[in-house]
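Q: Got a minute? One more chain.
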Amino acid sequence: MRNIKKVIEEHITRNIRTYFILIIIFLLGLIIGLIVVNNSSEEQETEITNYINTFITELKNGSKLDYFKLLKSSFGNNLFLVIILWFMSLAVIGIPAVYGMVGYKGFCMGYTISSVVMTLGTGKGIVFVLSSMLVHNIILIPCMLAVAVSGINLYKSIIKDRKKENIKIEIIRHTLFCLIMLVVMAVGSLIETYISSNLLVSVVSYL
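A: Always. Here it is, folded:
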């Protein structure tokens, strides 16, 4: 356990600058998502409000959750994200695309948070967001950032080192790292499906 902790600390320390840049981009995406919803047209606001209210009403009326569908959707989204980040680290557009994907995920989260708060109000909206989004994203967001950092490092290695053998080793290392993160993200998907969703169900009657 200590060795794992040490490896993680060394990884973060070695890539602290890249992590800092990615976190800033993620937060910028989140802020843009918040702003976009606040500047939506009345028609768009009505559509968002109706969708969220319908979802909450169905939960209040005892609508059963399809756990397999939720798990499949969550893990599918995470798998798609990892594959895209893995592929972009090998592509010509490389780093900008990785940064763009991280920013986009921040945007989606900001858009969702702002939509919920706009519909339910600040107090109830925060309760909804905390119960439905907080727990699993504590795992998923760091994993996404770690995969992005690994991809950026691989891209830099490809640019700097033209030796095929060294590049192959770096690709294998990056691929293994992505697979490990995907396993951890699968745990996050399980938490999202069986803990976050049930936590939301337990508080939805108060919304």
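A: Helices lie at 2-14, 16-38, 42-60, 67-88, 94-120, 122-160, 164-204.
Q: Perfect, thanks.
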